[in-house]
């Protein structure tokens, strides 16, 4: 009982500090001789029934009870006896549900499970520590789907599972590439993969949340055992942490799989969803519905959910899907809550929605409002599309395919979406105002799981592209991303020239489309080596990750270049760098270019598709020549 009281008091403390109208007081407190069920729901329910089942699939409950109204949207009941291993549902009169905040579930997440969470901790879990990260600018984020990453690995013991990320081949690959954060695509319990048919081919990205606070069953070795997915998820986090890699969770609070069957709707119809003025469900997510983060209980739910993933699963960061659907106030409250736990936990999101939301634009977590969301970052479509072309037409090229007038947009991405005296905002593709206060509020990237991957996009937008040119442009694109002052982010598999066979929206495409072809690692060793050396270059040199807008304005200056070329200098030992002045030239053109740089003796570390920090000869300043479709990086002592 001691543990019970401790948990209660912790919940109360958290609720007090958040000072909200609602306290999110959902958890079921398990003790060997007693279980306290408590769940949020409307005060005016005629009844709330608790049903206890022996298994996740047994037809009849072994026990039922009417819950007691505890006031303030709370329904409670205590049950004596040892209920460990049993399952339960709530019924608010709209069908059975595991509740809003189930922490363990049976197969397909239909029923919640009574377990002792402490028993799911792998050995040494208490000693698990978050890898050090002083600034988000130091992060190198690798976005991956569990199945894409490991399903095609002949040496994987657990292909497609959480445990694949504990295996030596996986850890070795990530460490040798040099990434220090993996961003895992939705890994909470989602609905589109039937966990009872895992012997059949099924694939989904998982943007269809069912139980937000339980790991997905299909990524575990046994979705029928409620402990298994939780333990294996923790083993994954532990293995990555041991390797110095942070774990970032993709969280999709902005919509649910559907409305009719959602746990939100079954508990409190229409409370959690926004409606338009004419009473229709709003669809800002493009998935048929949009949750209402501004509703006190939804806000409290999001806060508690983020906190739970940090405390129970040691998660190090969150990527908010369609953050532009959430209200700014909720995002800021989440940031403040997280700061109290560990301010180095990184929060970023998509600063847009997929349709119009039923909340005024000025209240939404959009990219344009990032300056009102301190220490929260958003993806930059400016740098992405400047390089590869616009999101709405895969056949249109960006700078890499010779599109005109994209240089300023690339420069805007290089400074990290902040105000900079040499970036002419009138010529930037989307934003006409800088939207980031600090460069660490911008995610720098050229591809992610959405849309085509980089090689496919280059092929689709540039006719008659030879393989040699494809590789040159691929490496050049990532050089822009990784020398940007934003937070660099890459899609898993780009380092081995991944292709999705031209499929743009591969959310339910088969493994044959989505899997990473690991044979490419030996087929194109120079591609992997370039990525690896590029990441190492960034990690070795603070000049590329200044982390502060003032430092970027002080140390980063653009050089005069012909059209199709962008060049900049990081001067005066930027960020305490041992290199006095660093020059980066990005030549997207098919011809070699001659550009003027300040006089001096420069050591070349990147030229014509090769990076070597030990040096590749020297160049005199004045006029320097840059090979076609490649980057030149050099420094002065
Ligand atoms: Ca599931």
Can you lay out the helices and strands and say which pair or pack?
Blueprint: H1 2-18, E1 29-31, E2 34-40, E3 49-53, E4 63-66, E5 68-71, E6 74-80, E7 87-91, E8 96-97, E9 112-113, E10 141-144, H2 146-150, H3 168-177, E11 181-184, E12 188-190, E13 209-215, H4 226-242, E14 246-251, H5 263-267, H6 296-313, E15 317-320, H7 328-341, E16 346-349, E17 377-379, H8 381-388, H9 407-414, E18 442-444, H10 454-461, H11 467-482, E19 487-491, H12 511-514, H13 519-523, H14 525-540, H15 549-555, E20 556-558, E21 565-570, E22 581-587, E23 593-607, E24 610-611, E25 618-626, E26 630-636
Parallel strand pairs: 10-11, 10-19, 11-14, 14-15, 15-16, 16-17, 17-18, 18-19
Antiparallel strand pairs: 1-2, 2-6, 3-4, 3-7, 5-6, 7-8, 7-9, 12-13, 20-21, 21-22, 22-26, 23-24, 23-25, 23-26
Bound molecules: calcium ion.
Calcium ion (CA) binds next to strand 12.
Structure keywords:
single chain; 637 residues; eight-stranded parallel β-barrel; binds calcium ion; alpha/beta
Detailed description of the structure:
It is a single chain. With 637 residues, this protein is α/β, with parallel strands linked by helices. The chain contains 15 helices and 26 strands. Helix 8 crosses helix 9 (407-414). The longest helix has 18 residues, at 296-313. Mean pLDDT is 94; it is low at 1-21. Calcium ion is lined by residues 108-109, 189-190, 195, 210, 216-217.
Bound ligands, each once? calcium ion
Show unreliable segments: 1-21
Structural class: alpha/beta
Question: Gyration radius, to the nearest Å?
Answer: 25 Å
Mean pLDDT reading: 94
What's the end-to-end separation, in Å? 66 Å
Helical segment tally?
15
- Write down how many β-strands occur, each being a DSSP E stretch of 2 or more residues: 26
């Amino acid at each position: 009982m001691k543990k019970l009281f401790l948990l209660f008091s912790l919940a109360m403390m958290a609720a007090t500090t958040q000072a909200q109208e609602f306290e999110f007081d959902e958890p079921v407190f398990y003790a060997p001789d007693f279980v306290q069920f408590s769940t949020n729901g409307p005060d005016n329910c005629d009844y709330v029934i608790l049903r206890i089942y022996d298994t996740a699939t047994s037809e009849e409950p072994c026990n039922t009870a009417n819950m007691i109204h505890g006031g303030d949207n709370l329904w409670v009941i205590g049950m004596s006896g040892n209920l460990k291993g049993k399952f339960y549902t709530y019924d608010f009169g709209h069908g059975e549900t595991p509740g809003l905040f189930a922490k363990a579930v049976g197969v397909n997440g239909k029923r919640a499970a009574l377990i002792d969470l402490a028993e799911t901790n792998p050995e040494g879990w208490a000693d698990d520590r978050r890898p050090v990260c002083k600034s988000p600018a130091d992060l190198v984020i690798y976005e991956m789907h569990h199945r894409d990453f490991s399903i095609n690995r002949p040496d994987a013991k657990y292909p497609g599972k959480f445990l694949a990320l504990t295996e030596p081949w996986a850890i070795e690959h990530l460490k040798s590439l040099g990434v220090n954060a993996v961003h895992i695509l939705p890994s909470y319990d989602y609905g589109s993969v039937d966990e009872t048919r895992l012997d059949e081919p099924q694939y989904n990205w998982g943007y269809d949340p069912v139980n937000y606070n339980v790991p997905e069953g299909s990524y575990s070795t046994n979705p029928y055992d409620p402990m298994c997915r939780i333990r294996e998820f923790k083993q994954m986090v532990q293995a990555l942490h041991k390797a110095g890699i942070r774990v970032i969770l993709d969280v999709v609070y902005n919509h649910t799989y559907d409305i009719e069957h959602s746990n939100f709707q079954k508990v409190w119809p229409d409370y959690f969803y926004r409606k338009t003025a004419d009473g229709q469900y709003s669809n800002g997510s493009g998935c048929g519905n949009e949750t209402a983060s501004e509703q006190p209980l939804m806000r409290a739910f999001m806060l508690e959910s983020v906190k739970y993933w940090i405390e129970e699963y040691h998660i190090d960061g969150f990527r908010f899907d369609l953050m532009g659907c959430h209200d700014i106030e909720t995002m800021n409250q989440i940031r403040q809550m997280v700061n109290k736990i560990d301010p180095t936990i990184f929060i970023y999101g998509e600063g847009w929605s997929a349709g119009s939301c039923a909340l005024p634009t000025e209240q939404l977590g959009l990219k344009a409002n990032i300056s009102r969301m301190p220490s929260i970052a958003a993806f930059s479509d400016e740098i992405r599309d400047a390089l590869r072309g616009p999101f709405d037409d895969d056949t249109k090229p960006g700078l890499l395919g010779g599109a005109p007038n994209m240089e300023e947009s690339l420069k805007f991405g290089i400074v990290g979406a902040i105000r900079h005296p040499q970036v002419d905002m009138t010529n930037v593709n989307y934003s006409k105002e800088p939207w980031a206060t600090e460069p660490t509020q911008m995610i720098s990237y050229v591809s992610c799981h959405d849309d085509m991957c980089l090689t496919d996009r280059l092929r689709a937008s540039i006719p008659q592209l030879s393989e040699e040119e494809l590789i040159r442009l691929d490496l050049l694109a990532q050089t822009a991303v990784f020398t940007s002052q934003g937070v660099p982010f890459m899609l898993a598999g780009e380092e081995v020239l991944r292709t999705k066979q031209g499929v743009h929206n591969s959310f339910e495409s088969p493994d044959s489309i989505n899997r990473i072809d690991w044979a490419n690692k030996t087929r194109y060793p120079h591609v992997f080596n370039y990525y690896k050396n590029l990441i190492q270059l960034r990690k070795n040199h603070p000049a590329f990750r200044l982390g502060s807008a003032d430092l970027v304005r002080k140390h980063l200056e653009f050089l005069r270049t012909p059209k199709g070329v962008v060049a900049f200098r990081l001067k005066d030992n930027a960020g305490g760098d041992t290199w006095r002045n660093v020059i980066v030239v990005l030549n997207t053109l098919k011809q070699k270019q001659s550009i003027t740089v300040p006089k001096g003796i420069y050591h070349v570390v990147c030229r014509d598709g090769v990076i070597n920090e030990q040096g590749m000869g020297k160049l005199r300043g004045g006029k320097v020549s840059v090979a076609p479709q490649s980057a030149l990086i050099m420094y002065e002592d």
